[in-house]
Amino acid sequence: MDADLKMSVKQLNFFYDKFKALENISLDFYAGHVTALIGPSGCGKSTFLRCLNRMNDLIPKSRVEGKILLDNEDIYDCAVNVATLRSRIGMVFQKPNPFPKTIFENVAYGLRVNGIKDKTLIADRVTESLNQAALWDEVKDRIYDSALELSGGQQQRLCIARALAIKPEVILMDEPASALDPIATQKIEELIHQLKKMFTIIIVTHNMQQAARVSDITAFFYMGKLIETDKTDTLFTRPKLKQTEDYITGRFG
Amino acid sequence: MAINRQFKERWMRRFFFVIASTSIFILLLIMIFLFAEGLPIFKKVSLTDFIFGKYWYPTSEPPEFGIFPLIAASISVTVLSAVISIPLGVMTAIYLAEIAAFKVREIVKPMVELLAAIPSVVIGFFGMVIVSPFLQDMFDVATGLNLFNAALMLGFMSVPTICSISEDAVSSVPRAMKEASFALGATHFETIFKVVLPASLSGITTSIILGMSRAIGETMVVLMVAGGAAMIPLSIFDPVRPMPASIAAEMAEAPFRGDHYYALFATGVVLFCFTLMFNIIADHIAYKYKQTGDSTL
Predict the structure, then answer these.
(1) Which fold has domain B67-296?
(2) Does the CB of B185 have a partner CB in chain A at under 8 Å?
(3) ipTM (interface predicted TM)
(4) Is A60 near chain B, with CB under 8 Å?
């Protein structure tokens, strides 16, 4: 692949206490590309995604083996500041989870915790991110209203704007459209197309059509293992393995 | 058969209605009695003189029924106890909900709640026998039975209420919201102070007001350790006589249906208004600033 390598996972194992949730996974992510992680429920794709910004650190008794490199530096190295790391790797969650604050404060939050105090800079970034997330036109007259008054789809785009505001390098999306209706889903997908020019995007999805529509590369997970990864077109039309073919054609899942 | 079941159903409903009405009716009776026995004092003293009068000499000749020193004592004791109990209670709650390991929390939280089960007379006794001499030596004051001692004891008594309800509020903040904060590069403490606390503020405020309303109505402790002097306190080491202590101490010696008796009941009415106000505020806050997440505070 003739693109810049952004993240590289090498022989990753992950344990919840004694249960091995991920086994020997190696996978590369390229700048300017969308990588989709697909697979049946419980296959470890969300767990894998949450390893990439060390979100699993919060789970007691969990353990990681192997390496995850971001620009060739191991993110699990003990010298790494987790908060700084997470400001480089943004995340959008399955259900919209805005803070019970105003729309403005939701987007400004990440800037403030990352030490930005300049008020004009914050205001500019908020406008810019809301624009990038295609939400500005809908909320420009009420950015000081509570974010909880927005619809589900708008809340999810607000969460994307919030992630964009701190200018991360990589954006992780954990089934970002699974709680949304088809129209809101379409908006999110269009957004992903726009955003991949600037960010490295990794998206977990249950929806195979969605994976086919938005991604450049698809990785198929099953039972904690990475079964097959390829360019999305290739994987969906000429999968190498029978298991992959069975899953994408809906014969098991 | 069907008629029989319907019949039973109807009588069960009536039975529960009667039981529920009885308890509410009795409370209502108590309230009516309180007002009926309290209001006659205002034939002798005007409401303003009663509430703002600076002298409480109910047994001298002529008697003076100004309860301002008692109100001042109640308020100062409650405020000072809040200054002690709010930081203790809320910070313990944050520690238990956010920082402590699961096992520690499972052991410590029931223990804190158990503190609420200590009879107030025991706390009063502790204040009298242990804290009072200590204060006397430490600060070189005339008596260890004073405002500060009472506030300290009441503060300890409010901590379980504040801590337990606050802990419920803090730990019911959805995990997803905390994760959103972490994912934006916030540290644990930034997340606690900027996301978790604001989201659980209504529960915490409710807990504080309930704790304070417990402190202002508490009788035994202030009777034992507040010192009992009916004067407006000028320092935190002055002895005071909060309203409940005054009622409890004097009721036995006040002649039945005499002015003193009526004045004590009127003091009870004032106290009732204070606690009522606290509860209305707590209710209002709990209603207006609904807790985020699935808490039902």
Answers:
(1) MetI-like fold (1.10.3720)
(2) yes
(3) 0.90
(4) yes
